[in-house]
Amino acid sequence: MTELAAFSLLVVAVVSMLSPMLSDFSTYGFHDWDVETAYRYITVLSLKEYGEGPWWHPWLCGGAPGWGYVEGASNLVSPYLPLYLAADVRAAIRIEVLGQALLGLAGAYLFAGTLSKSVALRTLLAVLWVLNGRWALQAAVGHTWHLQYALMPWAFYLFERACEPGQLRRAVYVGLCIALLVYWGGIYPLPHTALLLSLYALLVAAFTRRLQPVLVMAIAAPVAVAVSGPKLFAVLDHMQDVPRLIESKEVIGLSELLVMLTDTSQRYGSRPVRTPAYNWHEWGIYVGVAGVALLVLALIFGRGPREYALKILGLLCLLLGFGAFHEAAPWTLLHQLPIFASQHVPSRFHYPMLLMFGAVAVATLGRWLEPYLRQRPWLDVVLLVPVALFAFDLASVSRVPFTQAFWMEAPAEIRPAERFEHAQNPPLNYRRRDWAAPMLLSMMANTGVIKCYGIDANFVPGARAKSDPGYRGAAHVEQGEGKAEVVEWTPNRARVRVSGAKPGALVVYNMNYDRNWRANGEPALEFEGVVAHRLDAGESEVEFSYFPRTFAWSIPLALLTLAACFVRRSHLEQLRTRLRRIRPTSSSRAPSA
To answer: Which residue range is the domain that position 281 belongs to?
Structure first.
């Protein structure tokens, strides 16, 4: 009964927070919602319209990897894929937000269950993790990568289960959880989870003098890399050519953080305290006075091996979130390392800080309360009342950003162009414009955009817009006479018919070059930043095709690893027995007289 009450409380609170977004499915989201939806819409278009995978995204900036971009096609290996294929993208994206909120609540609740038996305290950690102001602000502006933090408490929960005596085999589930962060485009949640969980394993091993926590990560890490390989190695392959390096010198202090934690002005564009860069959605993290008291309680009173480990991680996140306040500050040093060099806004570490300190508070309060709860189980139900008050205080404040989130309306009619071409600027806009160029509408209009929003701002497209003075068509012939025409087109493929050209001429396809492009089965050439092929004798057609080259070995590796994760010793014994039964006996192999 207590768990049912807790479940009802969490569902009602999160629906209350998201209700402005869920009340009307006809509008589109502002700020980053357009491009984040475009990252998912490439999956829908590729599968439904062209019957192929979302490997290349021709609509972005003259063409960019769809699958090989860290946030690209994040709904392909996802439970939400059927929803995106069956429903309108505006409904699908909203349901994904709701689903990830519920997933985060469930993960935090289960992780808290490894620290306390109290249902009220487990609910408290779930509330703190999902209903705070940072979660709402990030989700409301369309930072869908932030939704993938839902898996962080799951990773810690599965780690704790794998550390139980005789449960080392469960370490594979930790690896699978981290692999999902790769597939779901967790550009910040992934490195944050990997860093914190690895340090947690080392700290717990040191405090408990047990080797099992380290063994768990020694198993989980290669499983995560291998299973996520089809996505991970495609991303790394792309980043070799287009490294994402971002300067990050932002600095805040403790006084600013206290305002961010307690100020109820959680609207987009609010500025209740000085911030070094960007809008309030990167800084606000409302948990209220009660939430701050909970964090202080953890910091002062937390005792025990796991509590010490979590407290150290919480302090690390606290310091990292203050940014580059010194040349030897944690963030200054961490930002020099691969992966973290591609990140900025260090205050994002203050979000996992809530999980670390919140878990310590749950363990500490649980140690004090559990003797009373064993004698008076009904007390746990009573404790749900202050938890409910805390939950609805957070939900009421976090509800505000969602009143601003989905107000954009598409034009009454969108006519897709018969032939795909690149335009310099988006051909369509929302009825009331936002600051960023609309990528989603351009996809619906079947028009690529050279000056796009959604990939590295330092990237220089090689493809030319149709209005560019140097534009010579979707395909043309260089270094010789002749004519080239695209006669068949999909996002990943273009069949070009060539006439009047001699062997040695260069056939050029007006699409950004990437090392995964091939022409007539051979690696394509690069010509002034676009894809090209040198004609051989007898060639009158060139088929340019894009397919991630890392798939050749990453997919078999992922499948073999998945198979190994779920093969049990009993299965191997059964296989050996069957092989013995079908193996010919020595007499049957002997030749007849």
So the answer is: 2-25+88-239+252-406
